[in-house]
Amino acid sequence: MNIIFLGPPGAGKGTQAQRICAALGIPQISTGDMLRRAIADQTPTGLKAKSYMDAGGLVPDEVIIDIVKERLQADDCAKGYILDGFPRTVPQAEALEGIAHIDKVVELDVPDEKLIERISGRRVCLKCGATYHVSMLNGQTTCGQCGETLIQRDDDKPETVLNRLNAYHSKTAPLVDFYQGKGKLAKVDGTGDVDAIFDAIMKVLKA
User: Fold this and answer.
1) Of 153, 157, 171, 182, which one is the catalytic site residue?
2) Identified catalytic residue from 13, 71, 118, 123
3) Domain range for residue 178?
4) Is the predicted pLDDT of residue 152 greater than 90, yes or no?
5) Rounded to 5 degrees, what angle do the CA atoms 157, 160, 164 make?
6) Which pLDDT does position 130 carry in this prediction?
């Protein structure tokens, strides 16, 4: 089954995609992973993408599409895959239509206020990489694993989170309308328990 995961930053796409992939025996593929793999393998499109990145520019859509096409032809995609973080725009989605058949698009739906609370409450340990949420720390300011002081990353500050959400709504949210029009979109409430969200996703995939 070929699946796309949609949802704003902090919606839990990564967590759920890992679980779905394990359950279905398919790979989770992100744009970053595809770029790194193509560059590491020194494919023609990978080298082309690297030339743009080395110059400090954005990799054009046509190059990204070629890299996606290469990646989806790999042996581990024979039974399907989850695309996480691609497509990001309607033009990318239209281009994807020409190289792949998508069975289902899962949108994790979480209100902005919940996302801001979820992300801005995140605290990380720079030493061991452990992640916590202030709601579970009870005032604790050090890592329970290594004792290092926990910090709030700049990306997780409320004003930054709001900017990221605004960018998502303006550029990526139109994909919801695009795939809804094709009858492929399944909206799943992303505010509940992790296990309940997983069960809900599996239910729509089997429908």
Assistant:
1) 153
2) 13
3) 2-26+79-111+172-206
4) yes
5) 130
6) 92
